[in-house]
Amino acid sequence: MTQHRALPLVAIVGVTAVWGLTFVQVQDALALYPLFAFLAVRFAISSVALAPFAWSSLRALPREGVVAGIGVGALLAAAYGFQTAGLELTTVSSTGFITGLYVVFTPFIALVLFRTSVPRVVWIGVACAVAGLLLLNGAPGGSALGNALVLASALAAAMQIAAMERYAPRYDPRALTFLQMATCFVGFTAIAVVLGEVEIPRGWTVWGALLVTGVFAGALGYLIATWVQARTTAARAALLFTLEAPFAALFGVLLADEVLGWPGWLGCAVLMAGIVVSEPAASAALRRFLPRGR
After folding, report:
1. Which domain holds residue 238?
2. d(Cα 110, Cα 103) in Å, to the nearest integer?
3. Dihedral, CA of residue 126, residue 222, residue 217 and residue 102, to nearest 10
């Protein structure tokens, strides 16, 4: 396995680990600070962090690239917004499972919109991911309306990932990521104003979560994700992004004293197995550590 082939896999594993870590921080912060105000400030920080690095590429970006960046940013904002609205009406476990269904929707959307073929081995990985998410989160329950909103979030996320397969190879990742972050900032600021949630963040718990999600999970995380999506298919990217779920569960156990029973640990293992089976770089890495026959 060459370094070039392994680098996107290593990069996205790091990003999903950060995304999983932020679940604990965000949960603590939202107990003290309004949700849509949090999202607005988070994406404001992401936009400011990216601006110095994206400015020159933004100036060179064609009009089609600007439209693409704003479009995928709107899909990303919709995914966050629908998930948040649904979470207020349904259970956390249902939200976790239904959100993860973007791993199923993405290959179909990419196939219909862009005629992207999906190898059989990737479908095996998708099936393992769904089984793993079901074991990790349990069967969906809660409010039907809440679950429908979360399902809309999963569809928006799948469309964003599929669209990035088309646009990430075409345009500078710095400009494309900045436009996504800025679009989310504008959208969530408007919602926060309408809901009367605008207030200044206070305290290290809130500011710590805002800085980590804004700089590392947001600006850096989505910049890396954009770079990776320029080098892989939408279906493989969606499958890799599901690593966020086991990382979130792991950090919940380590940092928040949550208990993960044997179905949860088995779900993490099944999900990881699906990625190893379907991702060539992961399979090659595993073979390096397995004993070889004589």
Report:
1. 3-286
2. 11
3. -30
